[in-house]
Structure formats: structure tokens, C-alpha cells
Design brief:
The protein is of the alpha/beta class and 356 residues long. It has 15 helices and ten strands. The strands form two sheets. The protein has a six-stranded parallel sheet, sandwiched between helices. Strands 1-2-3-4 form a four-stranded parallel sheet.
Length: 356
Amino acid sequence: MARLLMAALSAAGCKVELAARFRSLDASGDGDRQRRIAALGGRVAGRLVARYRRRPPAERPQTWFTYHLYHKAPDWLGPAVSRALGIPYVVAEASHAEKQRRGPWSAGHAAAAKAIVAADLVVGLNSSDGDGLRPLLADPARLQSLKPFIDARPFARAARDRDRHRAALAARLGTAATEPLLLTVAMMRPGAKRCSYRVLGRALRRIGDRPWRLIVAGDGPAADDAGAALAPLGARAIQLGRVDEAALPALYAACDLYVWPAVGEAYGLALLEAEAAGLPVVAGNTGGVPDVVTDKETGLLVPVGDAETFADAVASLLDDAVRRRAMGKRAAERVRRDHDLPGAARKLGGLLEGLI
């Protein structure tokens, strides 16, 4: 998403510069580590201010833009740099949850809240974040929504050549070209991703009486756990491991239905990629997933974590190819209309022009 935001800003006519590779994330709740990160962030911010002040005024940044700050990853750079340079401070996909006020990330929670309060513009990519953000903003107009987006062009191109991609994948895997193919594209990480793979394995075991194969593209530190969750599916689950980004559009286009339980999902760019390639989606109804999948129109949303209902939804679309294809067509149209990069560039450009 960060790369897509940079692409959208560039398309809007902005000169985009990556300020630093500093990462503020502490995933373990280690207070000592968080204090070291905060101190390092302060030093990095000071160096950035000094560097920018050495530039001629016309070459200094006009806006600071931070993506995805929250209690585990507060922004130690943007508020200090923007305040020192007297420029607008913009954040995208910030989140704030009062339940994190106490606990191992209390300092990060406070720092993230302070940054959100200071923001001149908060760009919301996930509608479920709004309730937590609005109480921090003196002016509610500072929160502006931006629909999650992708560059839909490579997926649309692949969809136009679906038959060739399907034949190539079937030949590669040794499957029948007519056998329905379910697809999952997801990192294999501990936590929510691992939970989703477990729900997926339980769900698909319930519909073994139907013909289908599950194609899985993904890798990561929880690959063994994901493999164990899918092992009961036997040869029906085909794990490809890591797939290069350039090869993904053809993979999506070669399949029939995208399936992902979406436990703890913010919104899911892979869901948008699948829809852009003309695949309907079965996913858990959580977070911002309804922002990108319209229930009963571009896919089916089920209670998150409910393997039985998830299985029923997948079975219903396996049994109805006409409905499945109609949903896929609507999904591709909706991505082009509401979730494509050019539209996001126009929206972002207008928001920043108003600030600057």
C-alpha cells in the first residue's frame, strides 16, 4: 500500500521522496526496545531537519506524508520534521484504539495519538478506523476517506487472456482445465494470517464432496503452520510458495474463485487484485473488508472465523458457475470504477492541493 500511495502521489504531479528507512515497529511489546526506537527516531528527525534546511527554500519539502501509524508503530519523525519546517503534516491509514491506552504499548499509543492530533490531514483507507480517529480531531473535516486502491491494469490485461492462463496453469500443475480452482494469495505469518489459514483448512474439509483444487501463493515464517492447516486437504491443496509480483495477475486470471477468511484483515489488497482479475471473493466480514467486497454482488461475506458458513458460501458459488461469473464481472467493473490508481491520484492530488 505504501508503494501504491507513492505511485498515486507521483501520478498526481507530486515529487515524492522517501525520507528515511527508519522503522518504528515493535511487535513484541518490549518497553526498552520502544524507548530505544523513540530515541533513535528523535535523532533521525533531527538529521532530516538539518538536511532539509541546508537545501535552497524551493527544494525543501512542502508536505510530510506518513503511512500507517498506530500504537505498535508511532510516528517519531513526521511531527518533529513538519513542525520544524512549518509544513503540513499528513497521515494515511492511522488508527487509534482506547483499549491500547494501558499495556505494553502505552507509550506508542500516546505518541500515535499525539501525532494524529497534530495532523493537518488524516487520509482514511479503512472505514472501520473512523470511530477511533474522530475524537482526536478538533475539526472532523481533517479526516478524509480514500478508498483502498490498486493499479488494476495488469489484472485487467490478464483477465482478457484468461483461457490461455488457465490452460498454462493446468498444464503446469497437471490438473484438468475444467476443474474449479480456488485461490488464496497471502503471507504466512503468525497471528491473524495463521488463524485465517486454519479457518480455511477447516472450511474446505467440509466440502470435499465437490470437485475443486486450492491454489495457495504465499510464504513466510508461519509456512509450516499454514502447511499443517491445509495438510488434511491432501493433494487438493497445491502450495506454490512465494510467487513473484509480476506473475500474480496471470495466476488470478487462471482461477475461478478467491477464498480468504480474513481474520484480523484491515481490508486486503489481494481481495482487490482478485476482483480486478474478474474473480468473485468469499471472505470474512471484518475490518474494512466490506469496503472492497460488496456482499452478494462482488462476492460473499461471512462471519469472521466461522468455518461452516465459509464452507457453505464457497460451495454455493462452486455449484453456480453462472452466478460466479456474473459476480466476477461486477467485481472487475467495481475495481475499475472505485478502486483504481488514477482515481486515487485525483483524490489525493485534490486533498494536498487544498493544504499546500
